[in-house]
Every structure is written in structure tokens, then in C-alpha cells.
Amino acid sequence: MCQLLGMNCNVPTDICFSFAGFRARGGLTDHHRDGWGIAFFEGAGVRVFLDPAPSAASPVAELVKHYPIRSLNVIAHIRKATQGGIRLENTHPFQRELWGRYWVFAHNGNLKEFAPALGGRFLPVGTTDSERAFCYLLDHLAARFPQGAPAPAALHAALRELALEIGRRGEFNFLLSDGDWLFAHCSSRLCYILRKAPFAVAHLADEDLTVDFNQLTTPDDRVAVIATTPLTDNEAWTQIPPGNLFAFHDGLPVGLGETRTVAQDFPRRLPDNGRAPDAE
Predict the structure, then answer these.
(1) What is this structure's pTM?
(2) For the segment 121-162, what is each residue's pLDDT rounded down to a tens digit?
(3) Residue 18 to residues 123, 152, 230, 251, Cα–Cα distance (Å)
(4) Where in the sequence is the domain holding 109, given as residue range(s)?
(5) Which CA distances in Å does 90 have to 2, 87, 136, 179, 253?
(6) Residue 189 falls within a domain, yes or no?
(7) Residue 275 region, left (φ>0) first, then alpha (ψ -120 to 50), else beta?
(8) Is residue 80 part of a domain?
(9) Per residue in 3-56, pLDDT tens?
(10) Confidence (pLDDT) at 258
(11) Domain count, the chain
(12) Which residues are catalytic?
């Protein structure tokens, strides 16, 4: 499966540490070699880096790894192609404008025979099921809320309804952000960690790199990191139960709607070794 990485913070923060481990999954510690991308929100703008080459060997990824871009919301993706060729236009994350704001989307999964009718305002440039799903989401949001962006609770309810609908076609793990909120939908596997005072020392699972966040933060900082599988091997990550859409704002998950539990009560903590259960 593809790999997702998201970050939501209450103060602009760089993602260099998490990205160092995440990048290794694109051809070094895992077999996802079909391109990668990352998007940083900066005010009303978005800075996007895309490359159809493996992230572990990408000079663009090397630049991002050492480039401390500070952002409140970040979405990154490493691709394992299922639909669409290995080309730049098929590389996540995808970007569109809605209600005068940029929206960024990345998907993990395979939506089989997903060919919905689209209204025309949002059309895919590439040939992936992921970009079609993104356009479908925005089409329906624009039609449902023609006067502009709705309240967060109404937006969450609409997104969750659409996510469950699209998810009937296959795995539909995704990250979506407008630069203010970050939405994370778990269809099969997605987890997160909250970092806030007192901060801990973290060690990457995919690279021998350790950081003491006490040296890089203030007591008021909050950072939520979302990933397909845990990026560190010495922290307790929380698994998002499949079928749930989580909303993150100011570095915290915010309850905007009813939580749906699957198999066990929410939330479920991952083991201390950071490995997700095989049953997911």
C-alpha cells in the first residue's frame, strides 16, 4: 500500500525529522518506488514538491529533508502505483481551489471500477483513481455548500458521508487539508501521535536518527503527526479505527461528529514497539 504522512500544528513547525524516516520508505526500507510528493501550507498559499522518482533516491527529497519549511499543515505521500502510470501528473498530493482556498489531498488504497460522473469544475489531469476521488469529493462539497465553506461540523459530516460512499469501492485511506483543518480518513490503516509538553526523545523506525523535542519546542507547542504506520519505534502511536474520519486542528484531534468503532472501542493504542496489528 502507499504511504501517507500528515502534520497539523498550533504553531508553524518543520517536518524534517518525520520526513527523514518517511522518505526512506520510498525504495529503501519499503518497496514504494513509484513517486512521492509533499505539500506545505503557508498562509493562503501552498508549496508543493512532486517527483515520480523513488523518494529514497530523489534529489528533490534530499532538498526537502534539509529544508526547514515551517507550516501548520503538511501532507506527504509515497506511491505504490495501482492505477495510472508512473508520471508526474499521477503523483500525490493533488491540489485544487474551493471556496477561495487551496485543498490538498493524498490517498492510499485501490478503488476498483471507480468512474463517477463529474460536474465539470473539478476534473482529473492524470489517470489515477485517487485524483478522480478527490474531484468527486470537491464536486459534491461545492454542490452541497454553494454559498461557501460550511461550519467545520457540517463539513466533517459531509466528508464522512462521502468517504463511506467512495470506500465501498475499495480502501480509501486519505488525508485532506485546506490549510486550517486536516482531515484523516481511515479505511484500513492509519495512526497518529500527539506531541506536546512534556516532550520526549523520539527515534525513527526507518533510519537511525534520534531527536529530543525538548530542545526544539516551547511548552505551548502541539504537533499531531499522522502516518500509515508509525514512524518511530519508541513512542506509543494511536490507531484510528477503520471507518472513522478524524479532524485535526491546532495540533489536536477535534470531535466534530460521532465516532464509529470497529472491532474494539476507540481509541486503540499501538504496542510500544510501534508496529500496527497484523489484523488491520
Answers:
(1) 0.91
(2) 999 999 999 999 999 999 999 999 999 999 999 999 999 999
(3) 32, 28, 10, 15
(4) 3-269
(5) 13, 5, 16, 22, 30
(6) yes
(7) beta
(8) yes
(9) 999 999 999 999 999 999 999 999 888 878 899 999 999 999 999 999 999 999
(10) 55
(11) 1
(12) 2
